[in-house]
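From the pipeline queue, job 12 of 40. The input is one protein chain; the requested action is below.

Action: predict structure.
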Amino acid sequence: MEFLTDLYLSRIIVMNNGEIVLEGRPRDVFYQYEELLRSRAIPPQIIQITSKLDLNGKFKPLHTSEFLELMNTERCKSV
């Protein structure tokens, strides 16, 4: 799923056992971390890192550059 963050997609669909389990904008789908894991999909690394840091409620980067940019903002310095 990592390569999908580099594409300019307006919508993605995640299927499990022939059924659609998630669909929507990439940022919205990728940040449904637990559902992705239950579907046996491996979330992109930046989503894994953000989820481990428990920052996914604060901001939702799709790329490392977004993550670093957000970490340097005043909003995140208080986190």
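Job complete. The helical segments are 26-30, 33-38, 45-52, 64-71, 74-77.
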